[in-house]
Amino acid sequence: MDSTATVSALHADATHRFSKNTAARIELVAGLGVAGDAHSGATVQHLSRVRADPSQPNLRQVHLMHQELFDWLATRGFTVAPGQLGENVTTTGVDLLGLPRGTMLHLGPEAVVEVTGLRNPCAQIENFQKGLLKELVGRDANGDTIRRAGIMGVVHRGGAVRSGDTVTVVLPDGPHEALQGV
Predict the structure, then answer these.
(1) Which SUPFAM superfamilies does this one have (predicted)?
(2) Which of helix, strand or coil describes residue 99?
(3) Ordered alpha helix ranges (H), the chain
């Protein structure tokens, strides 16, 4: 992790839409997610998961993506801005995809998000820009799935998060568990 890891952009939307509105500040609520966001709740809020089992715990309260992904996508011919892929928090200087499960991300002076897993991107990404889904979900040399569309977490401690806040990474004790799709 870079010592200058920061929150570069914030996003929320009260409606279930693909892209989220940019905000200068969001409020994280412990055990629920982003105040006023359609995906906030103790149980699943993503519509496909609600249809499958509305009583599942919400392991996807906060969606985080790294600005470096947008920069990489630009080298591959895609123009994607923060918030357009539905994330709540865009970071700079953190290898989000390389973090182990259970990592605590301190966002600014108050809020803490516990990392639960990798975002499992849906077909809506392909509708957003043709060919984009293939860039965000691929295969490595062994044929294993690679997910690049950010990570998901739950709010461990609430608080305000502002664009420009620092991001501090606290790794879990013991053996580290690689992130899986959630």
Answers:
(1) PK beta-barrel domain-like
(2) coil
(3) 47-52, 67-75, 124-128, 132-136
